Amino acid sequence: MNKNLFNASLAVFSLVIVFAVLLAFEVLLRLTGSVKPISNSRELFVAGAFGHSKGNTKNVEAMSFGEKVYTDKYGFRVPPNYKEDVSEQYAGTILVIGDSVAFGVGVKEQYTLAALLRKEMPAARVFNSAVIGYNSYDYENVIENFLPAHPEITRVLLIYCLNDLNSSSAALIDGELNTRRQKTNLFDSARHVDIIAGMNEFLRANSLLYVYLKGLLTDPQMRFYKADSLYYNADNNALFTNNIQPIVNIANTLNARHIPFTVIIAPYEVQLRKTAEAPHEPQKKLSAFFSANGIDFIDPVPDFLAKAIPSKDFYLYGDPMHFSEMGHRVMFDALMRR
């Protein structure tokens, strides 16, 4: 056989083997469900749901981080096959506000904090108004636009994520809304961002192997924490004060209506690592601020640290802040102790 032809055949055969191995790992990850794609259906979001804030599309079935999600007539996440019993008399109505952490991306609805509340207190009605990409200003818009028409609300819970002072997540989803269609391939992704970022976006949404290797070989949890913790540095006091003000406004609005309000501070995975230098400065600053402004809050970090398991088990694979089923349960238990 011609030597050049042999070398070419060997190269092709090697590529086929490599591709087959990668494909096998991809299939295995999809079968186990241990790794979630980092993407959401375009049809999940709608602009102008609460004032200037986007929201979830009403009565929709969509995909979020590999899980089917369903919404009700308000655009709030509900269990599959949910039907509201209008004849039922509720003892109270709890409104949960938050972003993707409270929404419960990557886990089935029955394991989210809102669903656990619903199960624990069947006499109460629980609204999960959380929307992926929300920040502090969006929470205020929900209260301003939804609360006046719903005097039945008797308690409000805010699941506060450390990136709530950051508008970058909201900007990404707003960009999706502006395109008016779902990006479906690498070329669509690259049209809206530079080619490297476009490749990253496409692979995060479509390749579980890529998400797995990225989590294995890098430390995205630390990278996200370092970026979002900057909002709590002393050098950014003015930015912190401005962007936390909507939560003070919410507290004042609810206090005027005699509606109890509690903030639950959701920790990042990095903060739960069993190391002496685990960073908790954001919680310290938030605790001092909420105390000074008379806002009831819960810091569940001690509840997490009391569990003798690795910090990563509380979160989706390689994820800096989105809880696994176990993470939602610990947040719920911390709330119920109150």
CATH architecture of one domain: 3-Layer(aba) Sandwich
Total number of helical segments?
Answer: 13
Give the distance, in angstroms, between the N- and C-terminal Cα atoms: 78 Å
Q: Could you please say which CATH topology of one domain applies here?
A: Rossmann fold
Tally of extended strands? 10
Average pLDDT metric: 86
Can you tell me the residue ranges where pLDDT is under 50 for at least 5 consecutive residues? 179-193
* Binned strand content: 15-25%
Detailed description of the structure:
Among the domains are: 1-32; 85-168 and 225-336, Rossmann fold (3-Layer(aba) Sandwich), CATH 3.40.50. The protein is of the alpha/beta class and 338 residues long. The protein contains 13 helices and 10 strands. It has helices at 3-32, 100-103, 113-120, 136-146, 168-179, 186-192, 195-206, 208-217, 220-229, 237-256, 281-292, 301-305, 325-336; strands spanning 45-50, 53-56, 61-64, 67-71, 77-78, 92-98, 124-128, 153-161, 261-266, 296-298. Helix 4 runs parallel beside helix 10 (237-256) and helix 6 packs across helix 7. It has a 5-stranded parallel sheet, with helices on both faces. Residues 179-193 have low confidence and may be disordered. Helix 11 (281-292) links the parallel strand 9 and strand 10.
